[in-house]
């Protein structure tokens, strides 16, 4: 009927009720204003897209809240990170509460991911991203020599850039081994970092059966994707695949995630050598100290 008042949109609950614990969706004044604007625009047939910055804030703070609530739960004293099922349930609830998450903003996410790392580690250093990329390039060059010396890699004579990047990510965990073996269902420890899809393999099916919920880089014929648990969080072209390890580090930092044990030594090495972020004393494990001693000896430091 002309002039009729539109039906009021039911507001999804902000609380995600699970058997234990009870999680709460993150929100703030700006996010609520955008949410209100979304429904106003939807009523007149127009779109309202959540900005990249707000998406990042929403994801980061929701996950931070989940981790804080989980660690404060008496029954979960030994648990340090939400399960895949909890992350998936929260992702669905986020889309229900913030339906504009279904509309993707223009441009690729890889262009601002490293900016988030700068904000966390060295927000006052305007040259931080450039410096990190330079250190990463140097680290990779040294790692090639190190891998060849340890008979873990072959000289990259015929590899293209994409193959070199994949080969590097597959080999790095073995160069800087951790004391904890990966889950049997995972296979190699490098699968905690990277998975290259087979031509007939579906990424969603793979993520559903993956035994870990840590950030992982998924590579297919066309693009790359970062996923956490069963949830894809970023997609980007293959051009910056050589920076894939840095993108994974960003999500570990942004979401306050504990390093996956089977690759914790490698990630700790990247933290100190590439990001130049000090490591906590309790994280300087014997595996890390041994790996660093061998690495420093190899590169002559």
Question: Which key phrases capture this entry?
Answer:
2 domains; four-stranded mixed sheet; two-stranded antiparallel sheet; 10 helices; 9% strand; disordered N terminus
Structural write-up:
It is a single chain. With 301 residues, the protein is of the alpha+beta class. The protein has two domains: 15-102, no CATH class; 110-299, no CATH class. It has helices at residues 29-43, 52-72, 84-97, 110-121, 128-149, 161-175, 203-209, 244-254, 264-273, 286-299; strands spanning 15-17, 22-24, 194-196, 216-219, 223-228, 231-237. Strands 3-4-5-6 form a four-stranded mixed β-sheet. Strands 1-2 form a two-stranded antiparallel sheet. Strand 5 (223-228) and strand 6 (231-237) form a beta hairpin. Helix 4 (110-121) crosses helix 8 and helix 9 (264-273) crosses helix 10 (286-299). The termini are far apart. The model is unreliable at 1-6 (pLDDT under 50).
Shape type: globular
Tell me roughly what share of residues is in helical segments.
Answer: 40-55%
What fraction strand? 5-15%
Distance between the termini: 78 Å
Q: What count of helical segments does DSSP give?
A: 10
What's the number of structural domains?
2
Alpha-carbon Rg, integer? 21 Å
Low-confidence stretches: 1-6
Largest sheet properties: 4 strands, mixed
Secondary structure class reads alpha+beta
Task: Give the neighbour order of strands across the main sheet.
Answer: 3-4-5-6
Number of strands: 6
On the 0-100 scale, what is the average pLDDT? Answer: 82
Order of helices and strands: EEHHHHHHEHEEEHHH
């Amino acid at each position: 009927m002309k002039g009729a008042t539109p039906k009021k949109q039911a507001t999804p609950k902000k609380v995600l009720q699970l058997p234990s614990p009870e999680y709460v969706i993150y929100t703030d004044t700006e996010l609520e204003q955008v949410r209100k604007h979304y429904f106003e625009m939807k009523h007149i047939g127009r779109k309202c897209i959540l900005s990249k910055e707000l998406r990042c804030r929403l994801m980061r703070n929701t996950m931070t809240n989940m981790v804080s609530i989980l660690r404060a739960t008496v029954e979960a004293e030994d648990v340090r990170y939400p399960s895949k099922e909890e992350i998936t349930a929260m992702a669905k609830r986020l889309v229900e509460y913030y339906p504009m998450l279904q509309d993707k903003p223009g441009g690729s996410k890889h262009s601002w991911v490293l900016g988030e790392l700068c904000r966390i580690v060295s927000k006052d250093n305007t040259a931080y991203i450039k410096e990190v990329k330079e250190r990463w390039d140097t680290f990779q060059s040294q790692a090639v020599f190190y891998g060849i010396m340890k008979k873990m890699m072959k000289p990259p004579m015929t590899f293209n850039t994409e193959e070199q990047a994949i080969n590097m990510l597959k080999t790095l965990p073995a160069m800087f081994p951790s004391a904890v073996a990966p889950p049997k269902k995972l296979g190699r420890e490098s699968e905690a970092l990277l998975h290259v899809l087979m031509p007939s393999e579906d990424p969603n099916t793979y993520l559903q059966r993956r035994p870990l919920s840590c950030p992982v880089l998924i590579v297919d014929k066309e693009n790359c994707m970062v996923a956490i648990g069963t949830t894809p969080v970023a997609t980007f072209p293959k051009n910056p695949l050589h920076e894939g390890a840095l993108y994974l580090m960003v999500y570990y930092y942004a979401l306050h995630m504990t390093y996956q044990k089977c690759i914790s030594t490698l990630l700790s090495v990247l933290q100190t050598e590439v990001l130049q972020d000090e490591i906590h004393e309790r994280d300087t494990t014997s595996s890390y100290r041994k790996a660093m001693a061998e690495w420093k000896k190899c590169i002559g430091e």
